[in-house]
Structure formats: structure tokens, C-alpha cells
Amino acid sequence: KYTKCHSKKDIEPNESPMISAIMFGLGVFGNVAALVILEIRRRRDARANDRRRRGLFHIFIISLVFTDLAGTCLTSPLVQIAYAWNTTLVGMAPNSSVCNYFGSSMTFFSLATISLLFITALDRCFAIGQPYLYNRVVTKKWAYITISVMFLVCILFSLLPFVEFGVYVQYCPGTWCFIDMNPLEKEHRVYANLYATIMLVLVLSIVACNGFVAYQLFRMYRRRNRQGSVMKSMRSSSERRVFVAVEVEHLIPLVFMTIIFIVCTLPMVIRVFYNSIRDDDGESHEDDLRALRFLSINSIIDPWVFILLSPSVLHFFCLSVCKTRLGKFRGSVSESMLAKGNCSAPVELSRPTMWTNCPPTEDNV
């Protein structure tokens, strides 16, 4: 039924470019806005001498946003050109070169995005699981090398169909190309299944890493509460609280991005596996197109996670929700200051953590 879609050269006149145009506009605007916010945050942290704590995380996140932006800018305009010319990707150039470019780009950027998410989650997992080894071994140079190797591997994988291992085909309505999810040749079917398996393994690995980080943060929180009456020093307690707060700031967007990526990726993974086990040769390009749009939505939503879950927004939300408790806390601190006289208790409201610093007296030693 859909075999003719692989070679058709004209787009049906009733097809509308509206959805693709909206997705393209939102993707560019969101990613550019996220880059601006991340740059503002980087400069603020640089002025506050917070480079080490946020440096690696910032590198991974800004690489992820750049990847999403590049993927949107290098593929979506071709869709709009196809609608404007009323010509499919196969019909734009001989030997289906535009179609092959589009398919390899989609494969590369989908793998690169989830790989960057995995590297970021693994970095946080290592940082909180082995903090001393992490501080000695992991550097910005290590981050740049890891990202470069990851990009190289993704490029090589996306180029395999050019050496007859896998194939890119055009899907209806003729405005997108991707891995053939229902191929007849065995090697092409292996390639499609390998792509889906890699995506699934990376998603599960990201979930496992984020779960480990959340568990370790919960253990640190409980340990801090148990040691509250016998803390070694107020300074060490403050440092632990700041460390936990920063890790929570990193974990929250990672968790939301993981959930979003699971929702956006699983339809495509399911379609690949489903098509590979079908006994007949039937295809459903409508379902495949919906799965591809889910995959494309990920690059639109990701930057808004950074915009809506930036530390300043989280701090404002926490202060708004906890306003009553904060007032009681400050009241108790003021009473303690009046009672002890020589105890100063600065409360920092611009951070998600608060602490007091009191010199030891006969009452509190």
C-alpha cells in the first residue's frame, strides 16, 4: 500500500505545512532562548566563583541544546522547501541524495541527543557516588573528549546505510526520510533493530542513573537529619547543604528531560520493533509519521525545561510555597539571636538552602 511513497516525487495538494512550520518555529525560539539563559547563568556563576561545581554540567547541557538547535535547523527547512516546491525529498535531487541526507541527519541527532542525556546522567551519578575520585579524575578536558567521541560514534552509525548496512527510505507524505522500519533484506532489518535497541538501552540507563542519584540524595538528606544534633561543625554542614542543593538543581531538569525523552522516543522504538516482527509486508506511514513527530517534539520541549526549571525559577517557586515556613524560621532565628546576644544568623534567601553561623558559647557547645 505504501511502497509508492518510497519513490513518489510530488506532494499531495491537500497536505498542509502548518504543523511542521509551527514545530520549526517553536524549536528555534526555545533553543535560542535556552542558550541565552544558560549563558547568563554561566556568567553569573563565573562572577560567584562557582565554576567547578557547575562547569561540567553546563558543558553537557549547552552541548545538548546546541545539538537540538542544529538538528532543527538542518532538517526542518527541507520540509518547508518540499511543501513550497510541492516536491518530495526524493524528487529534489537525483539518487535520493536529499532523502539520504535527511534520514542520516535524523538518525544522528536522535542518537546524539539521547547519548548526551546519558553522559550527563552518568556524570551526575559518578559525581555523587564517588565524589573524591570524581574531583581528581573528571575534568573539562575529559568532558570535551567524551562528547567528541560520542559525536564520532553517532556519525559512523548514521553513515552505515551508505555502505549497504541499513537503508533510508521516504515516508508519506514525502516530506521526511528515515531508517526503513519494515525492510525486506536481513541486514537492513538488523540495522533498524540495532537502532531501536540502542535507543531503548540508553533510555533505561538514564533512568537507572537518575534513580541512583535520587537515592543517594535521599540518603544524604536522612544522614544529615540524623546527625543534626551532633554535627561536626556548622561550616561542614553548610557545605553539605549547598552540595545537596546544587545536585538537586541538576537532578530536577534531568528527571523531567528523561521523562520527556521516554515519551517522545518510545513510539519510534515501538514502531521499529513492531514493523520488524510483522509477518506481512503492510506498513502504516500514518503511525510512523506520528512516531517521528513525537521524536521531533523532544528537541522543542527540551529547552523549555531549562527555561522553566532554571534555578531562579525554582528558588522563586520554593520561596513562594514555603513562605509561611520561612517566616516561622526567621522568627525563631530572631528569638535565638535576642536570647543569646552574640550569635549572628545570616539567612541567604537567594539559594535553596539556608543555614546559621553561631560562634560556640557556653550554651551551644
From TrEMBL:
G-protein coupled receptors family 1 profile domain sequence ranges: 30-306
Entry keyword annotation includes Cell membrane: yes
PROSITE patterns the UniProt entry points to: G_PROTEIN_RECEP_F1_1, G_PROTEIN_RECEP_F1_2
Biological processes annotated in GO: adenylate cyclase-activating G protein-coupled receptor signaling pathway; cellular response to prostaglandin E stimulus; inflammatory response; positive regulation of cytosolic calcium ion concentration
SUPFAM superfamilies per the UniProt record, alphabetical: Family A G protein-coupled receptor-like (SSF81321)
Family: Belongs to the G-protein coupled receptor 1 family.
Cited function: Receptor for prostaglandin E2 (PGE2). The activity of this receptor is mediated by G(s) proteins that stimulate adenylate cyclase. The subsequent raise in intracellular cAMP is responsible for the relaxing effect of this receptor on smooth muscle.
Protein name from the UniProt record: Prostaglandin E2 receptor EP2 subtype
Organism annotation: Poecilia formosa (Amazon molly)
